[in-house]
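dumping this here so i dont lose it
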């Protein structure tokens, strides 16, 4: 059981400025002494812990005393892209899988240097790198402190999923109490009153606040495409004939989807997904799937067939495991899967020889709209 009794004393030199402030504020002595006493009775099995409290309440001091060797800091980001900064010996597949898992599924941003990423992207990269280093335990100080609170909630939700899926142990240290509902920790230590609390993860899942996703169709097609295009993994091109939809998450712009009429040889009135983008700060929590599923159902309600072709691994995985989508083709050529399902690529005839993209068709759901 980690326990601590920490004394921190500061004795500044009695310079002119120090003496001036002591006199101005009637301080009797310049020495300051702080003492932090407590214990964190960690359970036998856990994945996520949270150390939270006001600034100056001892969070960082306690974390460094108990878990100093595990704090995520001092990574060298020396390459001109974050992929090459990841641990040596780790496959590209595992790197991209982990980046996607923590909610950073943006191939164009993977090509950037670490120092030009947004604060939210940097945080996710550091956590992904810690996971790839196979650390048994890692601690992140000032967790979500440099991102806005909406992004903090989404990031917390994505990161906790990745940590639990990996089976790692992660401790977030923060002064922001709002992340608890989204991080859903196994335990919380509050430095305001030095109290420890064990929590039921399943109960937290049931009571977690919902992300409010609002979807709008817009005529300002090029305006919104110019905002989203640099985050699209495939191309910056855009067909002006498309119908365009945008989504907000708790009021913040987060996603873009353009849909084009498609001259299908057998199915009339078919529409095809043209460009879909979710801002990196809002990835990893299923916003893209919920957004596009809603749009697809809207077209289905209008009597239209809705199809999509993608090479984005996260989107492929989500749709291949969704009852709302049917796989129609796998690979570059039309002869991919023989029955529309994704199979083991080592089985002869189950996929195309050079699998590049996967095509899907939306399965209309029973409409909930009133007649």
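and the seq i came up w/
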């Amino acid at each position: 059981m980690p326990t601590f009794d920490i004394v921190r004393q500061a004795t500044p030199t009695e310079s002119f400025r120090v003496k001036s402030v002591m006199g101005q504020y009637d301080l009797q002595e310049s020495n300051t002494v702080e003492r932090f006493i407590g214990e964190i009775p960690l359970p036998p099995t856990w994945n996520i812990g949270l150390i939270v409290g006001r600034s100056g309440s001892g969070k960082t001091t306690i974390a460094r005393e108990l878990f100093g060797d595990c704090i995520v800091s001092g990574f060298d980001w020396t390459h001109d892209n974050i992929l090459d900064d990841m641990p040596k010996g780790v496959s590209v597949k595992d790197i991209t899988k982990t980046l996607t898992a923590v909610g950073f599924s943006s191939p164009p941003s993977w090509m950037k240097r670490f120092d030009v990423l947004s604060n939210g992207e940097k945080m996710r990269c550091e956590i992904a790198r810690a996971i790839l280093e196979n650390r048994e335990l890692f601690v992140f100080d000032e967790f979500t402190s440099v991102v806005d609170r909406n992004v903090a909630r989404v990031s917390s939700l994505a990161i906790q999923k990745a940590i639990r899926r990996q089976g790692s142990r992660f401790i977030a240290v923060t002064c922001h109490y709002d992340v608890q509902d989204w991080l859903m920790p196994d335990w919380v230590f509050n430095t305001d009153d030095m109290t420890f609390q064990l929590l039921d993860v399943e109960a937290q899942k049931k009571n977690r606040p919902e992300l409010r996703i609002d979807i709008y169709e817009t005529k300002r097609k090029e305006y919104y495409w110019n905002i989203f295009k640099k985050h699209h993994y495939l191309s910056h091109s855009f067909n002006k004939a498309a119908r365009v939809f945008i989504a907000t998450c708790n009021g913040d712009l987060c996603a873009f989807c353009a849909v084009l009429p498609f001259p299908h040889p057998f199915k009339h009135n078919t529409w095809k997904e043209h460009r879909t983008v979710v801002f990196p700060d809002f990835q990893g929590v299923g916003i893209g799937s919920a957004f596009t599923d809603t749009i697809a159902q809207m077209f289905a309600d209008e009597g239209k067939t809705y199809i999509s072709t993608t090479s984005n691994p996260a989107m492929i995985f989500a749709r291949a495991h969704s009852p709302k989508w049917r796989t129609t083709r796998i690979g570059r050529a039309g002869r991919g899967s023989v029955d529309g399902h994704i199979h083991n690529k080592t089985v002869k005839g189950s996929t195309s020889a050079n699998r590049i993209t996967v095509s899907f068709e939306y399965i209309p759901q029973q409409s909930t709209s009133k007649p």
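Residues 4 and 65 are 8 Å apart (CA to CA).
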